[in-house]
Amino acid sequence: MYLTAGLHRSMQRHPDKIATVTGTRRQTYRQLVDRVARTASALRALGLQPGERLSVLALNSDRMVELLLAGAWAGLVINPVNTRWTAAEVAYALNDCGASALAVDDGLMATAQAMTAPLPALRHRLYIGEAQTPAGYLPLEAQVAAAVPMEDVRSAPDTLAAIVYTGGTTGFPKGVMLSHGNLWASLLGRMAEVPNPPHYVTLLTSPMFHVAGLGRMLGQTIVGGTCVTVPSFQPQQVVEIMAREGVNDLVIVPSMLQMLLDTPGFDPQGLPKLERILWGAAPITLPLLRRALAAFPQVDFIHVYGMTETSAAVSTLPISRDPAFLESERIRSAGPAGLSAEIRIADAEGHELPAGTHGEILVRGPAVMMGYWGREEDTRKALAGGWLHTGDGGVMDEHGYLYVIDRIKDMVITGGENVYPAEVESTITSHPAVSMCAVIGLPHEKWGEAVHAVVVLKPGMQATAEELATHCRERISGYKCPKSYEFRDKLPLTAAGKVQKTELRKTAQASAGGQA
Protein backbone atom coordinates (compact mmCIF):
# COMPACT_ATOMS: atom_id res chain seq x y z
CA MET A 1 0.00 0.00 0.00
CA TYR A 2 0.92 3.67 -0.20
CA LEU A 3 0.75 6.54 2.28
CA THR A 4 -2.16 8.35 0.67
CA ALA A 5 -4.39 5.24 0.46
CA GLY A 6 -6.14 6.33 3.65
CA LEU A 7 -7.18 9.62 2.05
CA HIS A 8 -9.04 7.82 -0.72
CA ARG A 9 -10.83 5.60 1.80
CA SER A 10 -11.85 8.53 3.99
CA MET A 11 -12.97 10.52 0.95
CA GLN A 12 -15.35 7.69 0.08
CA ARG A 13 -16.64 7.08 3.60
CA HIS A 14 -16.41 10.44 5.38
CA PRO A 15 -16.04 13.26 2.80
CA ASP A 16 -17.70 15.88 4.99
CA LYS A 17 -16.10 14.88 8.27
CA ILE A 18 -13.53 17.28 9.79
CA ALA A 19 -10.04 16.11 8.91
CA THR A 20 -7.82 18.82 10.38
CA VAL A 21 -8.13 21.60 12.93
CA THR A 22 -5.48 24.31 13.31
CA GLY A 23 -6.58 27.22 15.44
CA THR A 24 -9.91 28.40 14.02
CA ARG A 25 -9.21 26.81 10.63
CA ARG A 26 -11.03 23.57 9.86
CA GLN A 27 -11.25 21.46 6.74
CA THR A 28 -13.18 18.37 5.76
CA TYR A 29 -11.70 15.31 4.07
CA ARG A 30 -13.18 16.56 0.80
CA GLN A 31 -11.27 19.82 1.21
CA LEU A 32 -8.11 18.10 2.42
CA VAL A 33 -7.98 15.74 -0.56
CA ASP A 34 -8.49 18.67 -2.94
CA ARG A 35 -5.69 20.68 -1.35
CA VAL A 36 -3.35 17.68 -1.29
CA ALA A 37 -3.98 16.96 -4.99
CA ARG A 38 -3.45 20.62 -5.93
CA THR A 39 -0.36 20.97 -3.74
CA ALA A 40 1.10 17.86 -5.35
CA SER A 41 0.38 19.37 -8.76
CA ALA A 42 2.09 22.62 -7.77
CA LEU A 43 5.17 20.72 -6.62
CA ARG A 44 5.37 18.80 -9.88
CA ALA A 45 4.91 22.05 -11.84
CA LEU A 46 8.15 23.27 -10.25
CA GLY A 47 9.92 20.41 -11.98
CA LEU A 48 10.15 18.10 -8.97
CA GLN A 49 10.11 14.49 -10.11
CA PRO A 50 9.22 11.25 -8.29
CA GLY A 51 12.05 10.17 -6.02
CA GLU A 52 13.36 13.69 -5.38
CA ARG A 53 13.51 14.79 -1.76
CA LEU A 54 11.15 17.38 -0.32
CA SER A 55 12.36 18.68 3.06
CA VAL A 56 9.85 20.34 5.36
CA LEU A 57 11.02 22.55 8.22
CA ALA A 58 7.81 23.47 10.00
CA LEU A 59 5.84 23.19 13.21
CA ASN A 60 2.76 20.99 13.35
CA SER A 61 -0.13 22.53 11.42
CA ASP A 62 -2.74 21.65 8.81
CA ARG A 63 -0.42 23.06 6.15
CA MET A 64 2.31 20.65 7.19
CA VAL A 65 -0.17 17.76 7.09
CA GLU A 66 -1.16 18.79 3.56
CA LEU A 67 2.43 19.15 2.39
CA LEU A 68 3.62 15.79 3.71
CA LEU A 69 0.64 14.04 2.14
CA ALA A 70 1.09 16.01 -1.09
CA GLY A 71 4.71 14.95 -1.32
CA ALA A 72 3.63 11.30 -1.15
CA TRP A 73 0.77 11.97 -3.61
CA ALA A 74 3.30 13.41 -6.09
CA GLY A 75 5.73 10.53 -5.65
CA LEU A 76 8.33 12.61 -3.84
CA VAL A 77 10.35 11.45 -0.82
CA ILE A 78 9.31 13.48 2.19
CA ASN A 79 11.93 14.61 4.69
CA PRO A 80 10.37 16.24 7.77
CA VAL A 81 13.23 18.08 9.49
CA ASN A 82 13.80 18.27 13.24
CA THR A 83 12.56 21.71 14.29
CA ARG A 84 14.86 21.76 17.31
CA TRP A 85 18.03 21.56 15.26
CA THR A 86 20.41 24.43 14.71
CA ALA A 87 20.89 25.92 11.24
CA ALA A 88 24.08 23.90 10.82
CA GLU A 89 22.30 20.64 11.70
CA VAL A 90 19.47 21.40 9.29
CA ALA A 91 21.94 22.18 6.50
CA TYR A 92 23.76 18.90 7.16
CA ALA A 93 20.55 16.89 6.69
CA LEU A 94 19.55 18.77 3.54
CA ASN A 95 22.97 18.20 2.04
CA ASP A 96 23.07 14.59 3.15
CA CYS A 97 19.77 13.62 1.50
CA GLY A 98 20.27 15.92 -1.48
CA ALA A 99 16.99 17.77 -0.94
CA SER A 100 15.68 19.42 -4.12
CA ALA A 101 13.12 21.57 -2.31
CA LEU A 102 12.74 23.00 1.18
CA ALA A 103 9.44 24.25 2.61
CA VAL A 104 9.59 26.53 5.67
CA ASP A 105 6.94 28.13 7.87
CA ASP A 106 7.05 31.33 9.93
CA GLY A 107 8.22 29.62 13.12
CA LEU A 108 11.36 28.16 11.53
CA MET A 109 12.23 30.85 8.99
CA ALA A 110 14.95 32.30 11.23
CA THR A 111 16.66 28.91 11.38
CA ALA A 112 16.41 28.46 7.61
CA GLN A 113 17.79 31.92 6.91
CA ALA A 114 20.71 31.29 9.28
CA MET A 115 21.99 28.41 7.15
CA THR A 116 25.31 29.38 5.61
CA ALA A 117 26.47 26.03 4.19
CA PRO A 118 26.20 25.67 0.40
CA LEU A 119 23.27 23.48 -0.68
CA PRO A 120 24.06 22.59 -4.30
CA ALA A 121 21.10 20.22 -4.80
CA LEU A 122 18.50 22.65 -3.43
CA ARG A 123 16.57 24.22 -6.34
CA HIS A 124 13.47 25.55 -4.58
CA ARG A 125 12.82 27.32 -1.28
CA LEU A 126 9.09 27.37 -0.54
CA TYR A 127 7.28 29.54 1.98
CA ILE A 128 4.28 27.99 3.75
CA GLY A 129 3.71 30.67 6.39
CA GLU A 130 1.00 33.28 6.91
CA ALA A 131 3.01 36.51 6.63
CA GLN A 132 4.83 38.24 3.75
CA THR A 133 6.97 35.90 1.69
CA PRO A 134 10.68 36.37 2.54
CA ALA A 135 13.16 37.21 -0.19
CA GLY A 136 14.42 34.17 -2.01
CA TYR A 137 11.31 32.10 -1.23
CA LEU A 138 8.36 31.15 -3.43
CA PRO A 139 4.88 31.46 -1.85
CA LEU A 140 3.52 27.93 -2.15
CA GLU A 141 -0.06 28.97 -1.37
CA ALA A 142 -0.24 31.06 -4.55
CA GLN A 143 1.00 28.11 -6.58
CA VAL A 144 -1.56 25.80 -4.97
CA ALA A 145 -4.44 28.20 -5.65
CA ALA A 146 -3.59 28.24 -9.36
CA ALA A 147 -2.91 24.51 -9.69
CA VAL A 148 -5.14 21.88 -11.26
CA PRO A 149 -5.48 18.75 -9.06
CA MET A 150 -3.33 15.84 -10.24
CA GLU A 151 -3.95 12.11 -9.96
CA ASP A 152 -2.32 10.29 -7.08
CA VAL A 153 0.89 8.53 -8.14
CA ARG A 154 -0.03 5.62 -5.86
CA SER A 155 3.54 4.53 -5.26
CA ALA A 156 4.44 0.84 -5.00
CA PRO A 157 4.95 -0.52 -1.47
CA ASP A 158 8.72 -0.88 -1.91
CA THR A 159 9.12 2.75 -3.04
CA LEU A 160 11.03 5.06 -0.72
CA ALA A 161 8.48 7.28 1.03
CA ALA A 162 10.40 9.18 3.70
CA ILE A 163 13.85 9.92 5.04
CA VAL A 164 13.61 10.60 8.76
CA TYR A 165 16.81 11.55 10.50
CA THR A 166 17.94 10.04 13.76
CA GLY A 167 21.17 10.50 15.65
CA GLY A 168 24.24 8.31 15.36
CA THR A 169 27.07 7.26 17.60
CA THR A 170 29.46 9.13 15.29
CA GLY A 171 27.69 12.34 16.24
CA PHE A 172 26.19 12.82 12.77
CA PRO A 173 22.48 12.19 12.11
CA LYS A 174 21.60 9.23 9.90
CA GLY A 175 18.76 9.30 7.38
CA VAL A 176 16.44 6.37 8.04
CA MET A 177 14.85 5.23 4.77
CA LEU A 178 11.21 4.18 5.20
CA SER A 179 9.19 2.80 2.31
CA HIS A 180 5.46 3.18 1.77
CA GLY A 181 5.18 -0.48 2.74
CA ASN A 182 7.23 0.00 5.93
CA LEU A 183 4.96 2.76 7.21
CA TRP A 184 1.78 0.99 6.10
CA ALA A 185 2.79 -2.23 7.86
CA SER A 186 3.53 -0.27 11.03
CA LEU A 187 0.15 1.48 10.88
CA LEU A 188 -1.85 -1.71 10.36
CA GLY A 189 0.12 -3.63 12.98
CA ARG A 190 -0.49 -0.93 15.57
CA MET A 191 -4.18 -0.47 14.67
CA ALA A 192 -4.79 -4.21 14.93
CA GLU A 193 -3.69 -4.15 18.57
CA VAL A 194 -4.61 -0.60 19.55
CA PRO A 195 -8.01 0.14 17.96
CA ASN A 196 -8.38 3.48 16.21
CA PRO A 197 -12.12 4.30 16.03
CA PRO A 198 -13.16 6.88 13.40
CA HIS A 199 -14.68 9.11 16.06
CA TYR A 200 -11.28 9.78 17.63
CA VAL A 201 -10.14 13.37 17.75
CA THR A 202 -6.36 13.21 18.09
CA LEU A 203 -4.17 16.02 19.34
CA LEU A 204 -0.87 15.91 17.45
CA THR A 205 1.47 16.91 20.25
CA SER A 206 4.32 14.80 18.92
CA PRO A 207 6.07 16.69 16.10
CA MET A 208 5.65 15.16 12.66
CA PHE A 209 9.41 15.00 12.15
CA HIS A 210 9.17 12.03 14.57
CA VAL A 211 7.68 8.77 13.30
CA ALA A 212 5.27 8.88 16.26
CA GLY A 213 3.69 12.13 15.07
CA LEU A 214 3.89 11.24 11.39
CA GLY A 215 2.41 7.80 12.01
CA ARG A 216 -0.42 9.10 14.18
CA MET A 217 -1.41 11.58 11.48
CA LEU A 218 -1.37 8.88 8.81
CA GLY A 219 -3.40 6.57 11.03
CA GLN A 220 -6.15 9.15 11.33
CA THR A 221 -6.39 9.53 7.56
CA ILE A 222 -7.08 5.80 7.22
CA VAL A 223 -10.13 5.76 9.50
CA GLY A 224 -11.39 9.26 8.85
CA GLY A 225 -10.43 10.62 12.25
CA THR A 226 -9.69 14.24 13.10
CA CYS A 227 -6.22 15.68 13.66
CA VAL A 228 -5.97 18.75 15.88
CA THR A 229 -2.54 20.37 15.65
CA VAL A 230 -0.54 22.50 18.06
CA PRO A 231 2.80 24.06 17.08
CA SER A 232 4.45 23.02 20.33
CA PHE A 233 3.57 21.51 23.68
CA GLN A 234 2.48 24.36 25.94
CA PRO A 235 0.56 22.69 28.80
CA GLN A 236 -2.01 25.43 29.44
CA GLN A 237 -2.71 25.84 25.74
CA VAL A 238 -2.94 22.08 25.25
CA VAL A 239 -5.49 21.74 28.07
CA GLU A 240 -7.63 24.53 26.60
CA ILE A 241 -7.54 23.05 23.09
CA MET A 242 -8.31 19.54 24.33
CA ALA A 243 -11.36 20.81 26.21
CA ARG A 244 -12.58 22.98 23.32
CA GLU A 245 -12.13 20.37 20.58
CA GLY A 246 -13.23 17.32 22.60
CA VAL A 247 -9.90 15.55 22.17
CA ASN A 248 -10.13 11.90 23.20
CA ASP A 249 -6.76 10.54 22.01
CA LEU A 250 -3.30 11.67 23.02
CA VAL A 251 0.20 10.42 22.17
CA ILE A 252 2.87 11.91 24.42
CA VAL A 253 6.20 11.35 26.12
CA PRO A 254 6.32 11.06 29.94
CA SER A 255 7.73 14.57 30.42
CA MET A 256 4.66 16.00 28.64
CA LEU A 257 2.38 13.98 30.90
CA GLN A 258 4.13 15.35 33.94
CA MET A 259 3.90 18.93 32.68
CA LEU A 260 0.20 18.43 32.01
CA LEU A 261 -0.45 17.20 35.54
CA ASP A 262 1.70 19.99 36.99
CA THR A 263 -0.15 22.76 35.14
CA PRO A 264 -1.47 25.26 37.74
CA GLY A 265 -5.18 24.81 38.25
CA PHE A 266 -5.33 21.74 36.03
CA ASP A 267 -8.49 19.71 36.61
CA PRO A 268 -8.62 16.32 34.85
CA GLN A 269 -12.42 16.45 35.08
CA GLY A 270 -12.28 19.28 32.55
CA LEU A 271 -11.34 16.69 29.92
CA PRO A 272 -14.32 14.30 30.14
CA LYS A 273 -13.96 13.11 26.53
CA LEU A 274 -10.37 11.92 26.89
CA GLU A 275 -10.36 8.15 26.35
CA ARG A 276 -6.77 7.12 25.68
CA ILE A 277 -3.17 8.15 26.34
CA LEU A 278 -0.28 6.40 24.63
CA TRP A 279 3.25 7.08 25.78
CA GLY A 280 6.66 6.03 24.65
CA ALA A 281 10.08 7.35 23.51
CA ALA A 282 11.37 7.67 27.08
CA PRO A 283 11.17 5.89 30.43
CA ILE A 284 8.29 6.68 32.78
CA THR A 285 8.63 6.54 36.53
CA LEU A 286 6.13 4.40 38.43
CA PRO A 287 5.09 7.34 40.67
CA LEU A 288 4.21 9.40 37.58
CA LEU A 289 2.28 6.52 36.01
CA ARG A 290 0.33 5.88 39.20
CA ARG A 291 -0.39 9.60 39.54
CA ALA A 292 -1.72 9.72 35.97
CA LEU A 293 -3.88 6.63 36.48
CA ALA A 294 -5.43 8.25 39.53
CA ALA A 295 -5.97 11.57 37.75
CA PHE A 296 -7.67 9.98 34.73
CA PRO A 297 -9.73 7.01 35.98
CA GLN A 298 -11.69 6.85 32.69
CA VAL A 299 -8.61 6.81 30.43
CA ASP A 300 -6.84 3.80 28.90
CA PHE A 301 -3.05 4.04 29.20
CA ILE A 302 -0.83 2.19 26.73
CA HIS A 303 2.97 1.92 26.68
CA VAL A 304 4.54 1.59 23.22
CA TYR A 305 8.10 0.69 22.26
CA GLY A 306 9.70 1.35 18.90
CA MET A 307 12.09 3.61 17.03
CA THR A 308 12.56 5.44 13.77
CA GLU A 309 14.16 2.37 12.21
CA THR A 310 11.00 0.33 12.88
CA SER A 311 8.56 2.95 11.58
CA ALA A 312 7.42 3.48 15.20
CA ALA A 313 5.91 0.94 17.62
CA VAL A 314 6.81 -2.76 17.55
CA SER A 315 5.33 -3.67 20.95
CA THR A 316 2.51 -2.36 23.11
CA LEU A 317 1.44 -2.81 26.72
CA PRO A 318 -2.06 -1.77 27.79
CA ILE A 319 -1.92 -0.84 31.47
CA SER A 320 -4.38 -2.85 33.52
CA ARG A 321 -5.91 -1.19 36.55
CA ASP A 322 -6.05 -4.49 38.39
CA PRO A 323 -4.19 -4.01 41.71
CA ALA A 324 -2.19 -7.20 41.15
CA PHE A 325 -0.92 -5.89 37.81
CA LEU A 326 -0.08 -2.47 39.22
CA GLU A 327 2.12 -4.13 41.85
CA SER A 328 3.69 -6.65 39.48
CA GLU A 329 6.97 -6.49 37.60
CA ARG A 330 5.07 -6.60 34.31
CA ILE A 331 4.03 -2.98 34.69
CA ARG A 332 7.64 -2.15 33.73
CA SER A 333 7.34 -4.14 30.50
CA ALA A 334 7.02 -2.78 26.96
CA GLY A 335 4.69 -5.66 26.12
CA PRO A 336 5.02 -8.59 23.70
CA ALA A 337 6.00 -8.31 20.04
CA GLY A 338 3.38 -6.58 17.93
CA LEU A 339 1.51 -8.17 15.05
CA SER A 340 3.87 -6.67 12.46
CA ALA A 341 7.12 -7.55 14.21
CA GLU A 342 9.26 -10.34 15.57
CA ILE A 343 11.41 -9.50 18.59
CA ARG A 344 14.15 -11.50 20.20
CA ILE A 345 17.03 -10.98 22.61
CA ALA A 346 20.44 -11.91 21.22
CA ASP A 347 24.08 -12.05 22.18
CA ALA A 348 26.88 -10.15 20.45
CA GLU A 349 26.93 -12.73 17.63
CA GLY A 350 23.19 -12.45 17.01
CA HIS A 351 22.27 -15.78 18.60
CA GLU A 352 18.94 -15.85 20.42
CA LEU A 353 19.22 -15.98 24.20
CA PRO A 354 16.92 -17.86 26.59
CA ALA A 355 14.18 -16.10 28.54
CA GLY A 356 15.42 -13.96 31.39
CA THR A 357 18.84 -13.35 29.82
CA HIS A 358 20.07 -9.84 29.14
CA GLY A 359 21.12 -9.06 25.58
CA GLU A 360 20.47 -6.81 22.60
CA ILE A 361 16.94 -6.30 21.31
CA LEU A 362 16.61 -7.44 17.68
CA VAL A 363 13.56 -6.75 15.51
CA ARG A 364 12.41 -8.21 12.20
CA GLY A 365 9.33 -7.55 10.11
CA PRO A 366 7.77 -5.52 7.28
CA ALA A 367 7.98 -2.26 9.24
CA VAL A 368 11.80 -2.38 9.56
CA MET A 369 13.58 0.29 7.55
CA MET A 370 15.09 -0.12 4.10
CA GLY A 371 18.39 1.13 5.50
CA TYR A 372 20.33 4.35 6.15
CA TRP A 373 20.54 6.85 3.30
CA GLY A 374 24.01 6.80 1.74
CA ARG A 375 25.47 4.61 4.51
CA GLU A 376 25.92 1.10 3.19
CA GLU A 377 28.26 -0.07 5.97
CA ASP A 378 25.99 1.27 8.72
CA THR A 379 23.05 -0.42 7.01
CA ARG A 380 24.91 -3.72 6.73
CA LYS A 381 25.75 -3.69 10.43
CA ALA A 382 22.29 -2.61 11.54
CA LEU A 383 20.51 -5.27 9.47
CA ALA A 384 23.02 -8.10 9.90
CA GLY A 385 21.44 -11.53 9.62
CA GLY A 386 18.11 -10.09 8.51
CA TRP A 387 17.38 -8.55 11.92
CA LEU A 388 17.51 -4.90 12.98
CA HIS A 389 20.10 -4.58 15.74
CA THR A 390 18.49 -1.85 17.80
CA GLY A 391 21.40 -1.08 20.10
CA ASP A 392 18.95 -1.35 23.00
CA GLY A 393 19.58 -3.83 25.76
CA GLY A 394 16.70 -5.85 27.12
CA VAL A 395 15.27 -9.02 28.59
CA MET A 396 12.30 -11.12 27.49
CA ASP A 397 10.38 -13.17 30.03
CA GLU A 398 9.03 -16.67 29.50
CA HIS A 399 5.71 -15.26 28.21
CA GLY A 400 7.33 -13.10 25.53
CA TYR A 401 7.06 -9.77 27.34
CA LEU A 402 9.89 -7.38 26.55
CA TYR A 403 11.72 -5.34 29.18
CA VAL A 404 13.94 -2.54 27.87
CA ILE A 405 16.87 -2.37 30.27
CA ASP A 406 19.36 0.05 28.77
CA ARG A 407 20.74 1.46 25.54
CA ILE A 408 23.83 -0.36 24.48
CA LYS A 409 25.00 2.60 22.44
CA ASP A 410 24.63 4.93 25.44
CA MET A 411 21.94 7.04 23.83
CA VAL A 412 20.23 9.43 26.24
CA ILE A 413 16.49 10.07 25.85
CA THR A 414 15.49 13.37 27.39
CA GLY A 415 11.92 14.61 27.01
CA GLY A 416 11.41 12.17 24.14
CA GLU A 417 14.41 13.46 22.17
CA ASN A 418 17.38 11.25 21.35
CA VAL A 419 20.77 12.61 22.41
CA TYR A 420 23.91 10.80 21.35
CA PRO A 421 26.83 11.30 23.77
CA ALA A 422 29.50 11.28 21.05
CA GLU A 423 28.14 14.48 19.54
CA VAL A 424 27.92 16.27 22.90
CA GLU A 425 31.33 14.98 23.97
CA SER A 426 32.82 16.25 20.71
CA THR A 427 31.31 19.67 21.32
CA ILE A 428 32.54 19.93 24.91
CA THR A 429 36.07 18.72 24.10
CA SER A 430 36.31 21.40 21.41
CA HIS A 431 36.60 23.89 24.29
CA PRO A 432 40.29 24.80 24.64
CA ALA A 433 40.36 24.04 28.36
CA VAL A 434 38.85 20.53 28.14
CA SER A 435 41.01 17.43 27.97
CA MET A 436 38.43 14.65 28.16
CA CYS A 437 34.71 14.37 28.56
CA ALA A 438 32.11 11.62 29.04
CA VAL A 439 28.40 12.25 28.64
CA ILE A 440 25.79 10.06 30.32
CA GLY A 441 22.09 10.14 31.10
CA LEU A 442 20.85 10.40 34.67
CA PRO A 443 17.29 9.66 35.81
CA HIS A 444 15.15 12.78 35.92
CA GLU A 445 11.60 12.99 37.26
CA LYS A 446 10.40 15.43 34.58
CA TRP A 447 12.44 14.61 31.47
CA GLY A 448 12.94 10.87 31.93
CA GLU A 449 16.67 11.42 31.66
CA ALA A 450 18.90 14.46 31.90
CA VAL A 451 22.16 14.90 30.02
CA HIS A 452 25.11 14.96 32.44
CA ALA A 453 28.72 15.72 31.50
CA VAL A 454 31.81 14.52 33.38
CA VAL A 455 34.74 16.74 32.41
CA VAL A 456 38.51 16.54 32.82
CA LEU A 457 40.30 19.84 32.27
CA LYS A 458 43.76 20.25 30.79
CA PRO A 459 46.55 20.81 33.35
CA GLY A 460 46.73 24.43 34.36
CA MET A 461 43.50 25.33 32.54
CA GLN A 462 40.27 26.57 34.05
CA ALA A 463 36.63 26.44 32.93
CA THR A 464 33.36 26.72 34.78
CA ALA A 465 30.10 24.88 34.18
CA GLU A 466 28.58 28.18 33.04
CA GLU A 467 31.33 28.65 30.44
CA LEU A 468 30.87 25.14 29.09
CA ALA A 469 27.09 25.59 29.00
CA THR A 470 27.50 28.72 26.87
CA HIS A 471 29.99 26.91 24.67
CA CYS A 472 27.47 24.12 24.03
CA ARG A 473 24.46 26.35 23.46
CA GLU A 474 26.33 28.14 20.68
CA ARG A 475 27.04 24.88 18.84
CA ILE A 476 24.27 22.34 19.40
CA SER A 477 20.54 22.30 20.06
CA GLY A 478 19.39 23.15 23.56
CA TYR A 479 17.95 19.71 24.34
CA LYS A 480 21.39 18.16 23.67
CA CYS A 481 23.19 20.48 26.09
CA PRO A 482 24.05 18.98 29.49
CA LYS A 483 21.79 19.93 32.37
CA SER A 484 24.65 19.38 34.80
CA TYR A 485 28.44 19.22 34.84
CA GLU A 486 30.90 17.38 37.02
CA PHE A 487 34.65 17.99 37.09
CA ARG A 488 37.15 15.22 37.78
CA ASP A 489 40.88 14.73 37.66
CA LYS A 490 40.49 11.64 35.48
CA LEU A 491 37.90 9.30 34.00
CA PRO A 492 37.62 5.61 34.89
CA LEU A 493 38.92 3.59 31.93
CA THR A 494 38.83 -0.07 30.94
CA ALA A 495 41.98 -1.97 30.04
CA ALA A 496 41.20 -1.15 26.41
CA GLY A 497 41.12 2.56 27.21
CA LYS A 498 37.34 2.97 27.00
CA VAL A 499 35.50 5.10 29.52
CA GLN A 500 33.56 3.05 32.05
CA LYS A 501 30.26 4.88 31.83
CA THR A 502 28.57 2.37 34.10
CA GLU A 503 30.87 3.51 36.92
CA LEU A 504 30.21 7.16 36.10
CA ARG A 505 26.47 6.62 36.32
CA LYS A 506 26.76 4.86 39.67
CA THR A 507 28.84 7.60 41.29
CA ALA A 508 26.93 10.47 39.68
CA GLN A 509 23.57 9.07 40.79
CA ALA A 510 24.88 8.44 44.28
CA SER A 511 26.15 11.99 44.64
CA ALA A 512 22.96 13.45 43.15
CA GLY A 513 20.61 11.21 45.07
CA GLY A 514 19.53 9.55 41.86
CA GLN A 515 18.42 12.81 40.25
CA ALA A 516 20.12 15.14 37.79
Automatic annotation (TrEMBL):
Write one Gene Ontology MF term: acid-thiol ligase activity
Give one Pfam family. AMP-binding
InterPro entries, per this entry?
A: AMP-bd_C (IPR025110), AMP-bd_C_sf (IPR045851), AMP-binding_CS (IPR020845), AMP-dep_synth/lig_dom (IPR000873), ANL_N_sf (IPR042099), ATP-dep_AMP-bd_enzyme (IPR050237)
State the UniProt keywords alphabetically: Ligase
All copies of domain AMP-dependent synthetase/ligase, residue ranges: 8-373
Among PROSITE patterns, the record links this protein to:
AMP_BINDING (PS00455)
What positions does the domain AMP-binding enzyme C-terminal occupy? 423-498
Any keyword Ligase?
yes
Question: What is the superkingdom listed in this entry's lineage?
Answer: Bacteria
Assigned protein family = Belongs to the ATP-dependent AMP-binding enzyme family.
Q: Tell me the protein's name.
A: Long-chain-fatty-acid--CoA ligase
**What organism is the protein native to?**
Limnohabitans radicicola
